[in-house]
Amino acid sequence: MGHLEAVVFANNSSPKELFDNYFYLNRHIYFHVLAASTTLVRGMDQEMLISLGVPLLDKLLPKGIWRNSFVLIAGEGGTGKTYILQQIAASILQRGEPVIYLALDDDPADIIASLELRGIELKRFLEEGRLVFIDGYGGRYGYETEAPVAERLRSLDIHAAVSTITRVLDSNKVSNKGAIILDSLNPFFQWHDTNMVYDFVNMLRILVAKKRNIPVFATLHTPTQLYADIAATMEYMVDVFIVTRYHAAAMEAGYSVKEILVKKARGVPVAYGWVPFMITDKGLEEVRIRVRLPGQATASGQQ
Question: Which residue from 41, 129, 160, 258 lies 20 to 30 Å from 295 (Cα-Cα)?
């Protein structure tokens, strides 16, 4: 498999900064470091392990994740969190499992349009009842989406939200399969005290992920230090914690490059290190970054 490549010119970087950049950007280095070996899953029910079905994520999580996991993807706005969730959702649907999608940041109709624009045909999944939306976006304001939805959240009451999710799971007979997609947790944090939202996350982790063996995938946007601190707290509450960010040097050089890090994954091997990627027509593509010093010649000898 080929790799995209971006050349970043380093004008004011110290030797240590250049080494640090090279360490986490050079894929030959970061992919040989594993957080754990396959002995972590030995003696346990490996049928409970599931692949995320997204090549870059499967490379970072070579054994997958436990089906009863709560997965949080946190990071700055625009760093690909929602896109990653949608890719995971598409993969789960395509292998014949249901997806319950709690839309809080976007109209379900826009989510459907976005997925179909990327070549994912959703009509069949919607007709078969495998893709089920809960509208927590317009429903709170009396706006009726044009998309088919199973339920509408009329408020951000935490207990009502949990009841709605479990009711949809029961009515669709979802257990030991599928996934819950929650994009994003930010509206709950904007409406409630942080401790109440932590309790909401714990309820979903226990009542959905653990009790029903249904993975929950959620996002958290971190535009301010307050939300970054919330993400740091939640790292200890969830089973899998993934972080995204912009690659600053590449962005300054004019490349729309993001980075992803699987910081924590309970009981499974993890390929450690920040991995640069871009979102293209082909999906999430790993990018190889080369740092070039001022005046350094290219492979052709040109400067």
Answer: 258
